[in-house]
UniProtKB/TrEMBL annotation:
Organism: Pseudomonas idahonensis
Name of the protein described by the UniProt record: RelA/SpoT domain-containing protein
All copies of domain RelA/SpoT, residue ranges: 51-181
The organism's place on the tree of life at top rank: Bacteria
InterPro entries, per database record: NT_sf (IPR043519), RelA_SpoT (IPR007685)
Pfam families membership: RelA_SpoT (PF04607)
SMART domains, per database record: RelA_SpoT (SM00954)
Amino acid sequence: MTEQEYLDRFRDETPRLRAWGEFVISEINNLLINEHGQTIYERWIKIPPTIRIKNESSLIAKAFILNRGWFSDIYNDITDKVGVRYVVGLTDQISSLTKLIERSDKWSESASKEFDDWKLADPRIFDYQSAHFILTSITPITYNDIEIPTGTKCEIQIRTLLQHAYAELSHDTLYKSNITSEPEVHRLFAKSMALMETTDDMLLRAQTSSLIALANLEEIKTQLKSANKQHLPSTVFSNKPRENDYLIDQLRPLIKENLPEELNSFLTRFSSTIAGRISTRKGTQPLFELEAITLVYYLAKRKRTSLPNYWPFERSILEGVYSDLGIAPPWSID
């Protein structure tokens, strides 16, 4: 096959390759949204996925110059004529997205031999934790009025944002320039790779801790709502989730695992007292409109001396809470 014959075949196939890439993006997006919802999709996907049709000069160079016998079939063995890249936030999202893709019955997936060989040969790359594989159509598909035959291939890459930044910069510098033998360049890229690997690990750990804290916050909110409904059925609380969440989060260090029992015990005794005070005060103090205000009353009674250390607002508000319960605030006692 001559270079011109190669290009003619590629140009004839390009509309089908483009359609297959667009179909792959559509299917993956649907898989993620159907499984986790639109909010998770928007949270995970940091760069909107697009298709990439291989540049003709790069294709010819790969097939006829850089091949060096690697491909047994210089046309069919080049599997990245069309590619799709997903850029996510953290490495655990790579694994989750990969599992969704593997469950689809629209294609067969296989490892990218080229990437695997490159990964083993070059320890400098930060991209080793990313996912690179080939999606091959298993039945004829019509998409956007274009017939996509069985066996059409698309390379898919899933990287984190940090991996994407490193891979793009290192590829441009190390592999598209004439300084590949400069030791200082490799040393600096190795240092930056190590730093980004550490950053990725720290971000993943921070996210895990954040999710645990969020689950705990949601549990407390549920317990508060249930207690308020039972003991303060006539009190109307405002729907201000950000303010409510903030107040609860600030007070969380004071909350123990036995909150439901303790809170119900407290409200059994004091609900009639605080119900009227909440209704009166919320007209001038918006904080008393929140579901979490009953938590504040509870902590004022149970954690009288500790509560001011975690209180994020003016003391005058907290002073009113103590007053409603008939107890002196700790700062007024010499």
